[in-house]
């Protein structure tokens, strides 16, 4: 069974929120979608709402799924949903930094390799 990682494409005012990883060392400094691993027995959607609360101190409402399973490695897949913030202002509680990217800035950060096709899909579908 693949390990499932869930990620949120949080969009507000035509911008996409991205977060800079603090660890592990080989990923630190790379930019990703907020999210994390689904716990045993937890639904993907519940995990994503929980991770956004833990990492960003915001309550999110999930929207549509972006694509299907995006392969991260031979053992893990990434599943992504659009999301909107319904409560709070994002704080980098577990990240080095946060950035809101306009469509023009979408490729200005050093995305984790696994995220690049997802960002392409977001751009192609004009989700921001
Ligand atoms: N959250 C997130 N993780 C990603 C993305 N792209 C990507 O390759 N990953 C990788 C990085 C990590 O190896 C893994 C997610 O692990 P994590 O450390 O964020 O998960 P977690 O919060 O549940 O952490 P932990 O309980 O293991 O400490 O997936 C992404 O866009 N968002």
UniProtKB/TrEMBL annotation:
Share an example GO biological-process annotation for this protein: DNA repair
Q: Which reaction does it catalyse?
A: 8-oxo-dGTP + H2O = 8-oxo-dGMP + diphosphate + H(+)
For this UniProt entry, the molecular function terms from Gene Ontology, in alphabetical order, are: 8-oxo-7,8-dihydrodeoxyguanosine triphosphate pyrophosphatase activity; 8-oxo-7,8-dihydroguanosine triphosphate pyrophosphatase activity; 8-oxo-dGDP phosphatase activity; 8-oxo-GDP phosphatase activity; metal ion binding
User: What keywords tag this UniProt record?
Assistant: DNA damage, DNA repair, DNA replication, Hydrolase, Magnesium, Metal-binding, Mutator protein
Family matches, as InterPro entries: MutT-like, Nudix_hydrolase, NUDIX_hydrolase-like_dom_sf, NUDIX_hydrolase_dom
PROSITE patterns assigned: NUDIX
EC number(s) on record?
A: 3.6.1.55
Key word DNA repair present: yes
Give a yes or no for keyword Transport in this entry. no
Family annotation (CDD domains): NUDIX_MutT_NudA_like
Cofactor(s) it depends on: Mg(2+)
Q: Where is the Nudix hydrolase domain?
A: 1-124
Write one Pfam family the protein is assigned to: NUDIX
Database matches in PANTHER family? 8-OXO-DGTP DIPHOSPHATASE, NUDIX HYDROLASE FAMILY PROTEIN
Similarity comment? Belongs to the Nudix hydrolase family.
Please give the name of this protein.
Answer: 8-oxo-dGTP diphosphatase
Species source reads: Actinomadura geliboluensis
């Amino acid at each position: 069974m693949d390990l499932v990682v869930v990620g949120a494409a949080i969009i507000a005012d035509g911008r996409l929120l991205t977060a800079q990883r603090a660890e592990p060392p080989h990923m630190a400094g790379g930019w990703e979608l907020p999210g994390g691993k689904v716990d045993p027995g937890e639904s993907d959607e519940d995990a994503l709402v929980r991770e956004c609360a833990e990492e960003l101190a915001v309550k999110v409402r999930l929207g549509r799924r972006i694509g299907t399973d995006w392969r991260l490695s031979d053992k893990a897949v990434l599943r992504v949903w659009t999301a909107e913030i319904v409560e709070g202002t994002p704080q980098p509680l577990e990240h080095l930094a946060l950035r809101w990217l306009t469509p023009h800035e979408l490729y200005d950060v050093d995305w984790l390799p696994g995220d690049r096709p997802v960002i392409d899909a977001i751009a192609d579908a004009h989700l921001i």
